[in-house]
Write a structure and sequence with these properties.
Length: about 350
């Protein structure tokens, strides 16, 4: 664990001009404010005492300089940051993200610093909303908008074969949506560790087993990417999870949904971020929509050609465990004969509708 944290700390030392400029600005403003207070006190003394009238001009110049120089520095640094950045200006991007270990959803660490509403940096963080926020200029998108950096700045880390999730003492996410938990919480507790400040983390490696009867686990990431031209989204298993890059979208969807899982290797996940779930025509009622609404539940998932029948069956079984009714396609309401058909026939009908 110590060697991994050392590696993550070294990665965190990569150039962060955003942070450097912000730190410089705070120091300059603080020093200028202190100098201005001192100069104003001296100016008050000078005005009241005729013996010091000769200092009025130098004091005026000093006060003006105290205001003008920091202002020029702040303006110049802002222009420099925007010109030098890859994004050529500030961005506001979002990606929804969930972490699952051995079938249990993990609570990402809540904000803990005094008067802070985020975990991470001022530009790259999470607000206890299961959403990655990138708010600022992007100098090197291949790193600044990556999952690797997000894990580091929030107190965890990810490599090719290891995942460290910063979490809270309760460990598990307690929100209720269309996703189904499985396995045992004890399977997860065996991986609980602590960072250098004593805060809990979950530390898993490729090859670890959730329990004695499970297959070796693997760090996996599944990306849901929206296509606005067809109002559909596809699921993609990422070959290199740590290198995931945010999409330049502020609303989700079309912003991405990213599911990071540790467990036996698979090609497909039945997990889904809530903002995709409430829009999914087949699953929106599972994710909190009281009744089917064709204006809201208007996107569909398209299956990748590489997805196997076993993957489809696994996803269907998970959805059935929700005991939630899949809404009918709004354009074609079922006939009474279909509604009263035997279970086997009704399943066939529903399967044909899904294929449409």
């Amino acid at each position: 664990m110590h060697s991994l944290l050392t590696l993550f700390a070294a990665a965190a030392e990569r150039q962060d001009i955003n942070g450097d400029v912000k730190s410089l600005s705070i120091r300059v403003i603080g020093a200028a404010s202190l100098a201005l207070v001192v100069l104003l006190v001296l100016a008050a003394i000078t005005v009241k005492n005729k013996r010091f009238h000769s200092f009025k001009t130098p004091l005026f110049v000093a006060i003006a300089a105290t205001i003008i120089v920091p202002s020029l520095l702040l303006v110049g640094s802002t222009i420099y940051v925007n010109v030098q950045s890859e994004s050529k200006g500030p961005v506001h991007w979002h990606t929804d993200i969930e972490f699952w270990v051995c079938g249990q959803e993990i609570e990402l660490r809540d904000p803990y610093e005094f008067l802070s509403n985020k975990v991470g940096t001022s530009t790259y963080h999470e607000h206890d909303d299961k959403r990655i926020h990138l708010e600022g200029v992007v100098f090197e998108k291949s790193y600044d908008a990556s999952l690797e950096k997000f894990m580091i700045v929030t107190g965890g880390g990810i490599t090719d074969d290891q995942l460290v999730i910063p979490t809270d003492p309760q460990l598990f996410e307690n929100d209720v949506d269309g996703d189904t938990v499985s396995g045992s919480e004890d399977d997860v507790r065996q991986f609980v560790d602590a960072d250098k400040d004593g805060r809990p983390t979950i530390n898993v490696r490729n090859g670890d087993r959730c329990n004695d009867s499970s297959d070796p686990g693997e760090i996996q990431a599944f990306l849901m990417r929206f296509d606005g031209t067809t109002n559909t989204y596809e699921q993609i298993k990422l070959e290199d999870p740590k290198s995931y890059l945010m999409r330049d979208e502020s609303i989700v969807p079309p912003g991405d949904c990213l599911i990071v899982e540790f467990g036996p290797s698979k090609d497909f996940t039945d997990k889904l971020c809530q903002q995709y779930g409430v829009r999914d025509a087949e699953r929106c009622t599972e994710f909190g929509v009281s009744e089917y609404n064709e204006e809201l539940c208007n996107i569909r998932q398209v299956r990748d050609s590489g997805q196997s029948d076993e993957d489809d069956a696994s996803a269907a079984e998970s959805q059935n465990n929700q005991n939630a009714e899949v809404p009918a396609v709004p354009e074609e309401e079922g006939t009474p004969e279909e509604d009263n058909a035997p279970v086997e026939v009704q399943e066939v009908i529903e399967g044909e509708v899904e294929q449409l």
